Amino acid sequence: MAEDRALTVRALLDTVRAEGRSTLTAPEGKVIADAYGIAVPGEELARDVDEAVAAAARFDGPVVLKIVSPDILHKTDAGGVIVGVEGAADVRAAFHKIIANAKAYNSAAKIDGIQVQQMLPPGQEVIVGAVTDPTFGKVVAFGLGGVLVEVLKDVTFRLAPVSADEAQTMLDSIKAAEVLKGVRGGQPVDRWAVAEQIRRVSELVTDFPEIVEVDLNPVIATPEGAVAADIRVILTDEQPKQRRRYSRDEILRSMKRLMQPRAVAVIGASNEQGKIGNSVMRNLIDGGFAGDIHPVNPKADDILGRKAYKSVTDVPGEVDVAVFAIPAKFVASALEEVGRKGIPNAVLIPSGFAETGEHQLQEEIVAIAERHGVRLLGPNIYGYYSTWQDLCATFCTPYDVKGGVALTSQSGGIGMAILGFARTTKTGVSAIVGLGNKSDLDEDDLLTWFGEDPNTQCIAMHLEDLKDGRAFVEAAQATVPKKPVVVLKAGRTEAGAKAAGSHTGALAGDDAVYDDILKQAGVIRAPGLNDMLEYARALPIMPTPQGDNVVIITGAGGSGVLLSDAVMDNGLSLMEIPEDLDASFRKFIPPFGAAGNPVDITGGEPPSTYEATIRLGLEDPRIHSLVLGYWHTIVTPPMVFAELTAKVVAEFKERGIEKPVVASLAGDVEVEEACQYLFEHGVVAYPYTTEKPVAVLGAKYRWARAAGLLGGGR
Amino acid sequence: MAEDRALTVRALLDTVRAEGRSTLTAPEGKVIADAYGIAVPGEELARDVDEAVAAAARFDGPVVLKIVSPDILHKTDAGGVIVGVEGAADVRAAFHKIIANAKAYNSAAKIDGIQVQQMLPPGQEVIVGAVTDPTFGKVVAFGLGGVLVEVLKDVTFRLAPVSADEAQTMLDSIKAAEVLKGVRGGQPVDRWAVAEQIRRVSELVTDFPEIVEVDLNPVIATPEGAVAADIRVILTDEQPKQRRRYSRDEILRSMKRLMQPRAVAVIGASNEQGKIGNSVMRNLIDGGFAGDIHPVNPKADDILGRKAYKSVTDVPGEVDVAVFAIPAKFVASALEEVGRKGIPNAVLIPSGFAETGEHQLQEEIVAIAERHGVRLLGPNIYGYYSTWQDLCATFCTPYDVKGGVALTSQSGGIGMAILGFARTTKTGVSAIVGLGNKSDLDEDDLLTWFGEDPNTQCIAMHLEDLKDGRAFVEAAQATVPKKPVVVLKAGRTEAGAKAAGSHTGALAGDDAVYDDILKQAGVIRAPGLNDMLEYARALPIMPTPQGDNVVIITGAGGSGVLLSDAVMDNGLSLMEIPEDLDASFRKFIPPFGAAGNPVDITGGEPPSTYEATIRLGLEDPRIHSLVLGYWHTIVTPPMVFAELTAKVVAEFKERGIEKPVVASLAGDVEVEEACQYLFEHGVVAYPYTTEKPVAVLGAKYRWARAAGLLGGGR
């Protein structure tokens, strides 16, 4: 059956293309729809009045009759269309009237017959379509029909093909989703039938890459089904560019040698301060890299006390990484030598390639690398850090706080911001990697590696484009069940995308498509740079929540209100506190304190009240996450609060009870030290903000849902 | 005419209330609509067939005929309604058919006649209404009709009454505003007619406070007009509670003595460390207050080296402020003495009033204060700071960075966060005021004062509710043309509002109403606590932009993309750079750098490139604001960038050229010091974020528009 339909459509498309057309006619559209089970109105050609009556009888309800004549193009003008005809007598009358009208209109017209088309019942208009996205390829779209939705742009996208379940999620992903469930006493539409239309369109465009666009507009959705009133199919001659793809094993093999090298060569190593080749050497040495460091420089005998080689080919033994610190124009020949030496990774710090318009130079080095099987990082990057190896292969400064987050950036400036932020906040890092022009290695390679890397608990990526959206989604979907993937997609807005275009020459995809498909991949999208950095800092130290019940415990009622706002803003749920639990909380708080949620312990309370309520929050298995609101008072100073909270959290951890605990500290400057202490003891804490602690908790929940660790997942 | 209509409606409403009804009948609704010029379909009662024909002839187009009989309630069931009747013959036939149907349905029914009602043409359905908001009183609402909008909650609100211009802005304030302008080739609706319906409804509810709700649903808007198909009016018996309101002069007089006192008494002053009365005394003294400080304590002769008085009545000379640092139960009697002494302001630090359920105690002190004309700040507050007077009347710690922002908070915890944030960022402050339970003084009093205070350039307020929304809007509208007013409204979400309810006992208003009306008042709403604090820090040091043209100058292309996103997110416009200006920029940047906007000077550039481009940005009068993206390199280190930027900005300032300049610094930790330096030199700068600098610029623009200093205002 699947083969039959493919043969039918293949034959049809070949005919259309042989005729040099890129658009299908309505009857051709119907052939395709029928082949793929896309529901469209029934229609038949009736050559005489009896055939018309018989055809109309086969359709449920009223029909439309239309003249079919090669000589009558404007059917309506010719009186050749009558709608809403029902019953044999009316069909007969309408048939004769149309024939008469047509003859009166053009007595010489050749009449092939009359088309009898099923009339669709009134229902909710929806739109189902498929487009070819420059980043993601075939993508299906779903939205409500009508003017309002066009104005409000309430449409959702998924990578094609979609499963029936995935298609169903699209119905819930539009803002006006309620409409489909029946509002104001309206009937809900047949969700399964709508989802089937989406699924079948997604299969069609997947099977036939030359179909660039399909539009079912509108689909009439009713409680009984979903039928496309119209199908539009557009073809292209363009072949999508094939990109060399590496297998998962190949990626892991070369990435392991990149991130855990035993020997590194620095091409362009230098004794001269201020040169990049000097900075890289010093950072490698000062960073404490335990493997071999081989300077390569034709003009020096030793560099920073290490024997220098004229060429990388002279370096003895195996080398895992060659770091390039030479001008762009010398890269190609040095890369040839790297290839001949069999070094699997070239880290290209120099700029002066595609980003300055030197596309040809970049293509040249890519060709050399492919010939030798060398993988390229860059060019146009600051280098990379692999902290657990004490490896600082960059021209910046060493970074030594080992921890669980791997950070990558497409832009060098953003990379520097990552470094500064990490240093000032003591963020525990497993790697920082510059991707620059992404001439070869890109986010999917890194995701594949970091997904397996036991030192990495979270991956955070700044990106302006994806070279291959599908490869990224595949890598993300393989990684997300294991650890959170955070993405800061720059160029979200039209102006941003335009700026990205001039920056990297990359075609920025439509953000709505990015947004939905990154969500489909289970990726946590950071709304801004600072958010990405905070997620990166906080996610690895937060345990995974075991359920949706969030409880706020606050000394400052004012913080409780703002924290509640933040909980809602982040799509989290304040637990409805059961009576027995409420009574337990009340035992610890003053009579005028407010139990419920937030639990308002009031401002003047001693450390013991904070401790008792936090303890209860961790103890009760019905509570899954705690949000603490601290108020600086003389009775409970900031560090007292920090120490008691850290102590209780550690105690429960030892007993095997781990829940996310985040805190907002309102107070004088001492709260800053308290926050740093808390962060270092596994409690995410921020001063002067009620938004950030809840935003990072929200990010953790988004991940837990995407990873299937909580209900309500994708 | 205005009086006539008032008399007509007054008489009608009196009759309705005399009958004990709270809902008006359709004919009564029509009487009111006609009185206020609210367009509704024409209708007439026809007692015989000739009257029906005559009535139908008076209306344009088709009509609806409806039986009018006290004995037939369900007209449709009785066959008593026929729609779409046009022409004398059809009217006659329909008239007779309805009479026949009615008799068949109930032969004993008394028939008063047949109502002939004009049929409305098809058009865009919109909703116009008015409600009585607990905070703001009479409020008009406007939205599109139909199921979709109900689901998407696309409605906008304004304080009633509205002018014709204000009503017009409502048509643009809904998300689906485009629909009214005509999309997909549709015709635009008659905006004036729609606005008139809004304006007239707003007048009606203003004139008659007992009308709690009016609904015109739907109004059919067409290119030719806007007619309400239905009008619904609901009355109440409740009298709105009258609140004592002070005149502007009275407020300014007492506020001046509160904020610029010559003598302060501390009731409950103490020598005992850890007591609030001790902290307040010490802060007053350590803060350097130059006026008189009189401790009051019946059990001490002197406190911290100052003569103590048994009672405030014993204090010699005039006293401007009495700060209360005694338990709640002693407040009333001490307040009597304050009243007798003629002290105009009582600052009530103690808690134990409405916030702990002691409403009666609070009412008692309010009554005492009203009797004596004493104004109350609090109770349940940390006190207040008036920095330019070196006045720290709080139990916290002194704060001495004088500057342009006045900050107020309803919650003590938030007040402490304000203090800590201000201290760590060296925010220049004119005052910090705790409002607590707001038993008397509230945001409108403070706005009135700070609006006049020459030391205050910006006012930032945290609030959970407004006691009197109209008084606040009035005060804000008087202030906004002079200086920005920032509001953090806590309890935005349902959960937040619930938490606010348990916190202050205040009824949190619907946030959509708050949002629209704060906008109408020209207030800048901060989305969160940290945003409010950053706005407060940045707005006073930023000059007012003279126009909409924002230009980004960036060393980091990656920052340029994110800054462009932020510009769009904040509703700002990236200037379209004219060719001559583009050419001027290009002179300074490398050939592969991107001119346009962002101006991408590329990463490796020396200080002179930053300087030349910033100089050009300040020089060219077509550019109104600069957003700088700095990338930390060896060539241009952070402090070099900071100093050159500050120098250029200062130089132009001396020449009388001031534009907002904000900067995002991407780099290692040295950028933090550079940002602090820049801030202190009038350039708003942040490390590790591209969002914040643009967000505060956006806030400044929102204010400039609201203040009428730019186009596109409210």
UniProtKB/TrEMBL annotation, chains A, B:
InterPro entries: ATP_grasp_subdomain_1, CoA-bd, Ligase_CoA_dom, NAD(P)-bd_dom_sf, Succ_CoA_lig_flav_dom, Succinyl-CoA_synth-like. GO terms for molecular function: acetate-CoA ligase (ADP-forming) activity; ATP binding. Residues 258-353 form the CoA-binding domain. It comes from the Bacteria. SUPFAM superfamilies: Glutathione synthetase ATP-binding domain-like, NAD(P)-binding Rossmann-fold domains, Succinyl-CoA synthetase domains. In the N-terminal section; belongs to the acetate CoA ligase alpha subunit family. This is Acetyl coenzyme A synthetase (ADP forming), alpha domain-containing protein. It comes from Streptomyces indicus.
